[in-house]
Write a structure and sequence with these properties.
The chain has 279 residues and is α+β, with helices and mostly antiparallel strands. The protein has 2 domains: 3-146, Cytidine Deaminase, domain 2 (3-Layer(aba) Sandwich), CATH 3.40.140.10; 163-278, Cytidine Deaminase, domain 2 (3-Layer(aba) Sandwich). Helices cover 27% and strands 22% of the residues. The protein has helices spanning 18-35, 71-81, 104-110, 134-137, 171-181, 220-232, 255-265; strands at residues 42-47, 52-56, 87-93, 120-125, 128-133, 163-164, 192-198, 203-207, 240-248, 270-278. The strands form 2 sheets. The chain has a 5-stranded mixed sheet. Strands 6-10-9-7-8 form a 5-stranded mixed sheet. The radius of gyration is 18 Å and the shape is globular. The termini are far apart. It binds zinc ion. Zinc ion (ZN) binds at residues 70, 72, 102-103, 105-106. This is (rape) hypothetical protein. The active site is at 72 (proton donor). Residues 16-145, 167-279 form the CMP/dCMP-type deaminase domain. InterPro entries: APOBEC/CMP_deaminase_Zn-bd, CMP_dCMP_dom, Cyd/dCyd_deaminase_Zn-bd, Cyt/Deoxycyt_deaminase, Cytidine_deaminase-like. Zn(2+) binds at residues 70, 103, 106.
């Protein structure tokens, strides 16, 4: 396992096979066990660069399970943070000997990443492992294309929402604004971003990633927490002392929920939210 227990983009495996993934799963399992009280599932993805990325289930302490971050969502944030434009192959396992389909929630979430339908998922069937395209696992998915224009960049592709802040000064506001500008929110038109800072002064940002099916959407705070886990290799969320959120004024505000979550998992953390303007 690479530094911070998350595979760096420089590490590679020769073949994305169940056999080769077994040792990776074994290596990653101790971290996965520290992030969740449930059976830990690990998502392993190969990007179009052939580099390998990991995702883990992350429970948020003292909050209901539906606030948890799914391993597949963690993986997508990891890909985004490494500017990986496409997820080619995906495997999900908790022991390396059996690979499962993504959960239904994440099958829908993955539809909106770049070329999502083409993702090859490694599934262990009674006859042995085989790859299936994601569209076979959710053939009648809610389609983003029925509701938004084709020129909206998918998740993993570069975007700039063109948001600005009045009196935008200070590194926290600037970083949260930059995260909001990378946010994917074509259904609500309510992009948002968060920046966190820990006691050591390190900062972690996250962008809201929306799903046409609503519930699978990943909030900006959870996205920033993924980058905190990637960097620290754990969930010592109490070390987070600053949280700043930037969003647009809309009927779908993130601020109250983000504030509730961060104050629950990091009681000493300050929280401030600002409204951005669309240019
Ligand atoms: Zn899932």
């Amino acid at each position: 396992m690479e530094e911070n227990f998350v595979l760096s983009p420089t590490r590679n495996v020769d073949a994305f096979s169940q056999q080769n993934l077994h040792s990776l799963i074994t290596e990653a399992t101790p971290l996965a066990q520290s992030l969740t009280s449930n059976t830990p599932y690990i998502a392993i993805g190969r990007g179009s660069s052939d580099q390998i990325y990991l995702g883990f289930d992350v429970e948020l302490p003292d909050l209901p399970l539906n606030f948890s971050i799914h391993a597949e969502q963690f993986l997508v944030v990891n890909l985004t943070s490494n500017q990986e434009p496409k997820l080619r192959d995906l495997a999900i396992s908790n022991d390396g000997s059996h690979c499962y389909a993504p959960c239904g929630h994440c099958c829908q979430f993955l539809q909106e990443i770049n070329k999502g339908n083409e993702i090859q998922t490694l599934i262990t069937e009674p006859t042995g492992p085989r790859f299936m395209p994601l569209e076979m696992l959710l053939p009648q998915s809610f389609s983003r294309y029925s509701t938004i224009s084709d020129d909206v960049p998918d998740v993993l592709l570069l975007r700039d929402n063109g948001l600005t802040l009045k009196n935008s000064y200070g590194v926290f506001k600037e970083m949260a604004l930059a995260a909001a500008n990378r946010s994917y929110a074509p259904h609500s038109n309510a992009p948002s971003g968060v920046v966190l800072c820990d006691r050591g002064g390190k900062m972690y940002s996250g962008s809201y990633l929306e799903s046409v099916a609503d519930i699978p959407s990943l909030g900006p705070l959870q996205a920033a927490l993924v980058n905190f886990v990637i960097d620290t290799g754990g969930r010592e969320f109490k070390n987070i002392v600053v949280a700043v959120l930037v969003e647009t004024r809309s009927s779908f505000p993130q601020a109250d929920t983000a504030k509730m979550i961060i104050q629950k998992i990091a009681p000493e953390c300050s929280f401030n939210a600002y409204h951005a303007q669309s240019s």
